[in-house]
Specification:
The structure is a homodimer of 494-residue chains. The first copy, chain A, is an alpha/beta fold. The first copy, chain A, has helices spanning 24-28, 67-73, 92-99, 106-117, 123-133, 140-152, 179-188, 207-212, 221-231, 245-257, 262-275, 296-312, 334-345, 353-371, 375-387, 390-402, 430-439, 474-486; strands at residues 2-5, 9-10, 16-20, 36-41, 44-53, 62-65, 80-85, 165-169, 193-197, 233-237, 280-287, 316-323, 331-332, 413-418, 423-428, 449-452, 459-460, 465-471, 491-493. Chains A and B meet through β2, β5, α3, α5 and α10 of A and β2, β5, α3, α5 and α10 of B.
Chain lengths: 494, 494
């Protein structure tokens, strides 16, 4: 038994408990640093990893919990907690079987994912599960089981309408912010599209980061339903409605390891779509040397997985394989992408043509599905709606229904990167561009990022601006300049 | 730049840095909780995982490091440290390749193991490497590369003599403490056997824990050499001489995951033997339903791995496959095993016959190799040396050369577990016995553990003592009693 002290330490999703090194518990029960223990309070319990303390941070009889653990256990400073030995976590035996290459049952995935969401897995155990499932180690059946398990532990949104549309891009392409345009266009045509998007994990901006520069995105399920009832669509943040809480934990480990497990990507995307109540989903897979999907073959395999797993869980999936050799649009970073999106919606003459093209392609595909028309007719319909100005009106209406419509601002500090040669742009490294935007402060500083002026095949002259960097602080701009000194082959001009 | 404050938190081998949540660094450079960062001081650097703090634990401009990280970076309270972005760790690309089932090169293993020992890997990354290498995913070549890599990063002991003997047991059998007896016998016969052993990780006692109840085991390489020069042998703690520092880190993760990767076991054992300068090694593989190695087939496969990898790194390996269906000897726990060992060495009439038999078998094998004699002759020689009392004299001499010879004491608090039926003992669960000994306090409380009276095939009557539990504190004994209420099938009597 310990008296809890709030020592104000954050350790993210892995709960940490701090106990004095000279505590009787560490002696009598053999608890060592990094032992996993049960922490009980008031009928509920969590699992935490033990750190010991030998300073006066804690007095005798006191223990500390990381902030996140305190919230999960619903305890406050002064409460009495009890620390006990961990009972073995039975689903880990499935993880071990997976490590040894065994095919797992539906029950196994259900139990693993339930325990993951309940916080029973340490980072080491999560990493072992993610690793064992990566590298083409999962059968199609297992992808289906994993997807179903991920759906079952999250919140599910039900709709009255029989057909609910959705779109998704597997990502990896800076600036590729088609979602707000696509959603606005098809909502004008009467399609129901309650879009939930993610925030950036390793990219300079997610759709939710971009939308947050214009309106409120952290909506409850009830608020989402109200907005959709009014406008056929929403542009909300998925993290606010916990559609796939298991995914949030697994993605964290994947990103830390920098691996993209196809099976987990498919399960992640489709579980969120199913949980959001979608029935008809268009998935965009851009491929390119420096995109997330590197080759056309890889894109085709991923397409197959989306189709077969989608079918198994009752989703109608349409996959578009697109060009991922360079950024789409000019802005990279939340506000800069928002300005790009707004320019396209407003039909401004100098709006990014590639962003308009990609957006009407995807919107056209959704309309083609909805109206059972030809591809050309769907595309034409999308272009007409955009050109009419109705998509922009719809976008503003959605934003207002969500809480307001603001025009965001670019970062105050800026710096132009100039070509020092004449020639044609033959290659662009998406990853390095993304890194620069992040160093400039995106997505945390919404006005930070890049405006990009040097797409593939463009003829540039010595002295032309290739791209401009925006930051909200002088220090961050200096940081980017430092990085630029060391970076090579970001844009190849020949 | 931060002023370091010693906040007295232990977080074991994963370095942790604590920074205020409102630090400019977390804003300007996008450092989030669990970001991995470089911490620089005085020309050297470590990698640490970031935790943020929002209490007054740290003042503005201050940062904290976990104790272990402070030692590694050699900083003290008040020093000025610098925190920087982590550069990508290039060896992780090999780990990713391994996750995808690729065969790795010798260079790859060298780089991975070097980075592991340099502390560049997080727990998540270590877990991914261990997982990717488990489950029969490594080719023989790769086991050789891993073993060589593990040797190259540790300390290596050189000897003048051409032939250096060694023995090893893969473990998993409570009480199986043959080492001190084997070493003493063969040292009498003139064999050079500088034995280094480990402490318990998940078992109730390692040989080093047992030896520590009698003498000093934490010796430097120079001290080991002196003892061996005098007595032909030593019985030291391997952890004190850092023969395989990579192994210590990998084993931690394996134990956390409760997986025994054959490849890593082979690399772990053989790297330590090679680093210790051994040339001729006898390896004991006990197998049984509740031992570490579960079947004779598994034991044969492991034997093959030891032989082929041993040959590749220039070791002469002889494998004994033995019975692992029950504990060897009667004592389980550091002091109780020591008393068992002493009884055998002193030729006491009631000494554990199975421990004597197993010890002379292994010693006999070493003598057979040394003298190129028959198995029977080797065994006979070992038995004669033991019976003559010379092995006991040698054992005492080794202990005195290491720093003293003390007879350890059993725990003061004791409790007998009584049979409530008549019958024959048909099955024993080694794992549950080990667990009881650990709950009683072993190995931390040296006098804690079990004395076991109910070997297989023994006829027991209702009321007979099956085993006695010893503890150094009353609370621990209560803890065991609590566990005994819930445990089933520990000893099957039919």
């Amino acid at each position: 038994m310990f008296t809890l002290r709030n020592i104000g330490i954050h350790s993210s999703h892995e709960n940490t408990i701090f106990i004095r090194e000279d505590s009787p518990l560490t002696h009598s029960e053999g608890f060592k640093v990094l032992t996993r223990v049960f922490v009980h309070f008031n009928g509920s319990k969590i699992i935490a990893t033990l750190n010991t303390v030998h300073s006066n941070l804690l007095k005798e009889g006191e223990a500390g919990l990381s902030e996140e653990a305190m919230i999960r256990l619903n305890v406050k400073d002064g409460d009495t907690i009890v620390v006990k030995h961990l009972q073995p976590i039975s689903s880990l035996s499935y993880v071990r079987a997976k490590i040894y290459g065994k095919e797992l049952s539906e029950t196994a995935y259900q139990e693993i994912i339930k325990d993951v969401v309940d916080g029973l897995y340490s980072n080491i155990e999560l990493a072992a599960f993610v690793t064992a499932c990566a590298g083409n180690n999962m059968k199609i059946n297992e992808m289906v089981y994993l997807t179903k398990a991920m759906i079952s532990v999250g919140q599910q949104i039900k709709w009255e309408q029989a057909v609910i549309f959705d779109k998704h891009c597997v990502g990896g392409l800076p600036g590729n912010r088609t979602t707000p345009i696509v959603v606005s266009i098809v909502a004008v045509a009467g399609l129901i599209i309650p879009k939930t998007s993610s925030k950036a994990i390793t990219s300079p901006a997610g759709t939710a980061d971009m939308m947050e520069t214009i309106t409120k995105v952290n909506l409850s399920v009830e608020e989402i339903k109200e907005v959709v009832k009014k406008e056929n669509a929403c542009l909300a943040w998925g993290g606010g409605v916990k559609l796939s809480p298991a995914d949030d934990l697994l993605i964290y480990v994947e990103k830390a390891l920098d691996i993209d497990s196809e099976a987990q990507m498919v399960a992640s995307v489709l579980s969120k779509k199913a949980a959001a109540g979608s029935t008809d989903v268009v998935i965009d897979i851009p491929y390119g040397k420096t995109a997330k999907v590197r080759s056309h073959e890889e894109a085709l395999k991923l397409k197959y997985y989306f189709e077969v797993v989608g079918e198994a869980i009752g989703l109608k999936i349409t996959v578009l394989i697109t060009d991922g050799s360079q950024p789409v649009g000019r802005g990279i970073g939340p506000a800069l992408e928002a300005l790009d999106v707004l320019a396209v919606l407003k039909n401004e003459p100098d709006a990014a043509a590639d962003l308009r093209e990609r957006s009407t392609l995807i919107a056209g595909k959704l309309l083609e599905i909805a109206h059972s028309c030809s591809e050309a007719e769907g595309k034409k319909m999308a272009e007409d709606i955009l050109a009419s100005g109705k998509a922009f009106e719809k976008f503003k209406a959605i934003c207002k229904a969500q809480g307001g419509f603001n025009i965001p601002e670019k970062g105050e500090y800026t710096f132009d990167v100039i070509s020092d040669v004449d020639g044609i742009v033959t290659e662009i490294d998406n990853r390095k561009l993304a890194r620069i935007a992040k160093l400039a402060g995106a997505p945390k500083s919404p006005g930070a990022g890049i405006i990009f002026y040097a797409p593939l095949h463009k003829k540039v002259s010595k002295g032309d601006v290739l791209y401009s960097i925006y930051a909200e602080g002088k220090g961050q701009l200096e940081y980017v300049k430092e990085y630029l000194k060391s970076v090579n082959h970001l844009i190849v001009i020949e």
